[in-house]
């Protein structure tokens, strides 16, 4: 498999291929299949949207059933409930999630871009060995690191702080790998050499030549790293104790466990559903908004 | 990988064998070289610090802990016990059962996910309509939903109290199965993970399909290949490196199965014990029983399995992936 086509920074969009399946019946069949698939992937989210407009009891017994609106519309009440329940801790969780995802995502991306570029364009001693170790580390399951990380962080007193979640999230071997593979082809070494002949320093070359060329790969790694920290569950579950520090994922899971175990007052099903719905909006919006960047970029890693 | 690195090294250090014949390139070049080397390390340094602190050290520490024991019996001191913990792990029915369970998940979940993702990608690749573009996005959307939220949501959908299952099955005069019972929980978990990841794998395969030069299809059409033949004999082999990659992702993810069963446990306590998967077992050993040494052994042993599993897979498929 050739690598050049996939890593080329100017991914070409080909003309439509309507000629391939001229057969009308098969086209209808294909579309029917896709609609079915789309329904499977979207209906569960639709449940969240509908559910967020229902009151706590309306979720069980409602005029609309599970997949349609009830007569009463309680979305505003539910959002107000999120502000009131346990002193509005939901919004603190959401803010924490933003901090973790932003710090982890941006930090991991900056480190990955620097290292990937360095590995691709500088022939320092030990580079090959470095890259081999890096490739191997992609296969190390990150959850295997969580327990020793917990013990080490508690030894230095960082446990139960935001740093305990942010610092380990800075590690993204796969990000370094992607940037390294992409830089190799996207940044012509001749261009760097020409810059050096003209007297440009290495930092200037990095900022003015490399960074603009790496933009598609940077956006992809940023999205991957941000999604990774946003989704992380095992690590915050292990290293955080204070309710005030939890990300929204761990927090909502606690509400769920309490609602299942607890009595009437602790059952906040409507808030869980509404909270879940609100929490997924930012990331879905980011993905829809940044489509043109990541759609080609996600295939980056498939190059050898 | 090496072929390309050799090409673009105009000022790299000369191979040692050529030292004697090296002509005029003298001191000035080599100072530039060493300066350049220095810059290479500078760029790599920040990542290296994080890599050492949060990968090398925890991994070595986990290994060290797995060779020691600490507790009341040892007076709170760490005592070297050699391979005792590993002997215990590999004779521990709970760990072995969990390992077997995630192996079963791999056997079912990986083919289901990759198969569905491949079919979706192939279908999308033959269409260029607005509807196909929209469904591509909709299929991908679950990737943007955190696994915890996805599992919570499916927990609601599975629940006989909240979920639509009773209504839907009622339409056909049937009683809905209990998705959270011990006999159904395996399938229910497979469904959640499939829902979450198919779109991501599909996008990767689809993006690879889009890079194939269409003139290849033209040639196949002239040779009389139909759509299915084109798909199976041309498209699939040409995206095999992406396929290998998504299988590795899915394999590594499944062996570390943790989030979904942990979240679903609060609604299906009977069906999912606290040691359902090796990772859940390690978590409860560490945080419910404070057996950090044994928990590290389990985590490390699982890590070895993941590493060996993906290594064997990459070795077997080295032709397809191009990782020779």
UniProtKB/TrEMBL annotation, chain A:
Q: Which SUPFAM superfamilies match?
A: MetI-like (SSF161098)
Alphabetized, the UniProt keywords read: Cell membrane, Membrane, Sugar transport, Transmembrane, Transmembrane helix, Transport
Provide the topology term for how it sits in the membrane: Multi-pass membrane protein
Output the InterPro entries linked to this UniProt entry: MetI-like, MetI-like_sf
According to the entry, every stretch annotated as the ABC transmembrane type-1 domain falls at 94-290
Q: Localized where?
A: Cell membrane
Q: Which Pfam families does the annotation name?
A: BPD_transp_1
Region: Disordered, residue numbers? 1-24
Q: Where is the composition biased (Polar residues)?
A: 1-20
For this protein, the parts annotated as crossing the membrane are 32-50, 98-117, 129-151, 163-182, 203-230, 268-290
Family of this protein: Belongs to the binding-protein-dependent transport system permease family.
Q: What is this protein called?
A: Multiple sugar transport system permease protein
TrEMBL record, chain B:
Which terms are listed as keywords in the entry? Cell membrane, Membrane, Transmembrane, Transmembrane helix, Transport
Please give the PROSITE patterns that the UniProt record associates with this protein: ABC_TM1
Q: How does it sit in the membrane?
A: Multi-pass membrane protein
Pfam families membership: BPD_transp_1
**Similarity remark:** Belongs to the binding-protein-dependent transport system permease family.
The record places domain ABC transmembrane type-1 at: 99-313
Gene3D superfamilies noted in UniProt? MetI-like
What is the protein's given name? Carbohydrate ABC transporter membrane protein 1 (CUT1 family)
The residue ranges crossing the membrane are 38-64, 105-125, 137-159, 179-203, 238-258, 294-316
Give the UniProt subcellular location, in the record's own words.
Answer: Cell membrane
Q: What is the residue range of the signal peptide feature?
A: none
Query: What CDD domains does the record tag this protein with?
Result: TM_PBP2 (cd06261)
């Amino acid at each position: 498999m050739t690598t050049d086509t996939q890593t080329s920074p100017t991914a070409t969009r080909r003309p439509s291929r309507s000629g391939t399946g001229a057969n009308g019946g098969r086209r209808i069949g294909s579309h029917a299949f896709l609609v079915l698939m789309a329904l499977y992937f979207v209906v569960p989210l639709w449940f969240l949207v509908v559910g967020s407009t229902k009151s706590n009891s309306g979720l069980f017994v409602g005029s609309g059933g599970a997949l349609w609106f009830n007569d009463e519309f309680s979305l505003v009440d539910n959002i107000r409930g999120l502000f009131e329940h346990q002193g509005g801790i939901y919004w603190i969780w959401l803010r924490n999630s933003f901090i973790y995802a932003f710090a982890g995502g941006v930090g991991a991306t900056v480190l990955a871009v620097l290292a990937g570029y360095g590995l691709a364009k500088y022939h320092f001693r030990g580079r090959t060995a470095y890259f081999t170790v890096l490739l191997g580390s992609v296969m190390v399951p990150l959850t295997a690191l969580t327990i020793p990380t917990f013990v080490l962080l508690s030894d230095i007193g960082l446990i139960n702080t935001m740093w305990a979640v942010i610092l380990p999230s800075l590690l993204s071997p796969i990000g370094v790998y992607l940037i390294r593979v992409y830089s190799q082809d996207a940044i012509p070494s001749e261009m760097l050499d020409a810059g050096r002949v003209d007297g440009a320093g290495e930092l200037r070359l990095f900022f003015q030549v490399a960074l603009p060329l790496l933009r598609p790969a940077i956006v992809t790694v940023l999205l991957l790293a941000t999604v990774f920290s946003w989704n992380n569950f095992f690590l915050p579950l292990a290293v955080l104790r204070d309710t005030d520090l939890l990300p929204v994922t761990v927090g909502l899971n606690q509400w769920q466990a309490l609602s299942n175990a607890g009595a009437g007052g602790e059952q906040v099903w409507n808030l869980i559903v509404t909270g879940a719905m609100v929490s997924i909006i930012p990331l879905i919006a980011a993905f829809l908004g940044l489509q043109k960047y990541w759609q080609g970029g996600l295939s980056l890693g498939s190059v050898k | 990988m090496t072929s390309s690195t050799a090409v673009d090294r105009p000022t790299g250090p000369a191979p040692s064998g050529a030292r004697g014949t090296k002509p005029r390139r003298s001191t000035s070049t080599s100072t530039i070289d060493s300066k350049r080397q220095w810059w290479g390390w500078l760029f790599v340094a920040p990542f290296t610090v994080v890599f050492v602190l949060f990968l090398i050290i925890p991994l070595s520490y986990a290994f060290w802990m797995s060779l020691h024991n600490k507790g009341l019996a040892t007076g709170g001191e760490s005592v070297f016990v050699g391979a005792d913990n590993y002997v215990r792990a590999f004779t521990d029915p709970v760990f072995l059962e969990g390992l077997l369970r995630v192996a079963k998940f791999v056997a079912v979940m990986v083919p289901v996910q990759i198969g569905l993702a491949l079919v979706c990608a192939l279908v999308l690749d033959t269409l260029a309509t607005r509807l196909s573009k929209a469904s591509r996005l909709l299929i991908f959307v679950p990737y943007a939903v955190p696994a915890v939220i996805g599992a919570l949501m499916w927990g609601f959908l599975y629940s006989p109290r909240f979920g639509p299952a009773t209504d839907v099955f009622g339409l056909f005069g049937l009683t809905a199965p209990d998705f959270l019972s011990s006999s159904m929980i395996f399938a229910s978990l497979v469904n959640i993970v499939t829902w979450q990841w198919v779109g991501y794998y599909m996008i990767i395969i689809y993006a690879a399909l889009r890079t194939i030069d269409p003139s290849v299809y033209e040639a196949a059409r002239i040779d009389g290949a139909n759509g299915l033949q084109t798909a199976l004999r041309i498209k699939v082999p040409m995206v095999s490196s992406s396929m290998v990659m998504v299988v590795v992702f899915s394999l590594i993810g499944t062996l570390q199965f943790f989030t979904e069963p942990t979240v679903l446990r609060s609604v299906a306590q009977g069906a999912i014990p606290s040691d359902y998967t090796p990772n859940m077992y390690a978590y409860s050993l560490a945080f419910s029983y404070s057996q950090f040494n044994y928990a590290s052994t389990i985590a490390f042993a699982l890590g070895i399995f993941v590493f060996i599993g993906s290594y064997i897979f990459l070795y077997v498929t080295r032709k397809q992936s191009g990782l020779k």
